[in-house]
Design goal:
Elements lengths: L6 E2 L8 E4 L5 H13 L2 E6 L5 H12 L3 E5 L2 E6 L7 E5 L4 H12 L4 E5 L2 H4 L4 H9 L3 E5 L2 E7 L7 E5 L5 H13 L5 E6 L5 H13 L4 E5 L2 E4 L8 E3 L4 H14 L2 E4 L13 H7 L3 E3 L4 E4 L9 E3 L4 H10 L6 E5 L13 H9 L4 E3 L4 E4 L9 E3 L5 H14 L2 E3 L12 H10 L2
Parallel strand pairs: 2-15, 3-14, 6-7, 10-11, 18-19, 22-23
Antiparallel strand pairs: 1-23, 3-5, 4-5, 7-9, 8-9, 11-13, 12-13, 15-17, 16-17, 19-21, 20-21
Helix pairs in contact: 1-2, 1-3, 1-7, 3-6, 6-7, 8-10, 8-12, 10-12
Amino acid sequence: MSPLTPFLIPAINRSFDVEITLPGSKSIALRQLAMAALAQGTTHLTGIPECDDTQAMIDCLIELGVSVEADGETTVVKGPMDFGHSTLNLNARMSGASTRLLIGMAALRKGTTHIDGHSSLRARSNQPLFDVIQKHGCTVKSSSGGLPATITGPIEASPSLIIDGSLSSQYITALLLIAPMTCPESGQMIQISGDLVSKPYLDITLNEMSKCGVKAHWHDEKTIFVEQSHYQSGQRTVEGDATAATYFSALAILHGGSVTLTNIDQTTHQGDYEFCTVMEALGAKVERQGHTRIVGPSQLTPLAQVDMQTMPDAALTLIAMSPLLPGTNTITGLQSLHHKECDRLECPAKELRAMGVAVSTTVDTITIEAKDPTVLKPHTLTTYHDHRMAMAFSLLGSRCETLQIDDKLVVNKTYPNYWQDYQKLRTSQ
């Protein structure tokens, strides 16, 4: 493992008016890469972000027999993947979303697929997904429901699948991905048991599937119907990442600045785009037509309480900025945060307490009191190998001048240029 690169987050001491072109949405990119690998023919993908997660997925697709080449800003994918009897080894590195998609793809194969990854990825459960594919014909060997795992298929066609939706929507996305190719001629119902977390990510999946010629829709609030079909190759564009947008929206809020995000607007299906509404509640002005422009207020409006269940990846952004907001803020709907790259509820709570912030948590809420940033205790933040811990806490570091993170390069997972774009806010005229 590479040595860590500690980094003192530089403060932002001025207002700013900048344009930022966000990296392409990782969620959309991984889905489009997978669907291109399942399609017959050549797909041209523009806007694939250059980061560890997408590179891990690309490397795994190449192992699956898919040709993936860069042509300028376009990624050229020639499918389909190897559905045969060979034995293949895939390393998903630190990408949880890739892992779940690859498990689904492995279930399509007649052969055996070994999937492994970083120690932090091994700690994340895939048991609900394993349970479904085992019930429908696959053999799965796994260490306590996690990685490493060995999957031998193929999965059997079935008119109905039942999947637990209470831990992660990625399990459901994995089943949606393969459903058009494995369901009976009459189609397939995917029924979701338990509480459904992160529904907007399923809406992303359905929208991206439609771009590739597959028809699927919500039958009711807990059931999705998928028609039998095949993915079509073609040309696709990946829009900017809505979670990455939250950091710059928040920085505009905290510093009374203005940020224009050039490659995302109100047409997006990404749930984290609703973070703009939270910013408006804090007093920001937001333009959403053709681009997204956030103008911070001269004075923040108190929030008191906000439910983040429908945008869980943006919740960490709000947690990290909460000490800088007026009054005491309670954030609810956080039950899925325990199952991310790290425990994104208890880990940030621990780090905030170490800085002298008053914090209390329940299983699905966090309450944070405001704190003068000039009296925060100097601290080296543990990122827990989680890219979003570093980027979210850069908001706090932008005001306190005494916050160091344990690894500057952890952002490479999804946003290698984050610190360069952060620097633009410090140096804009």
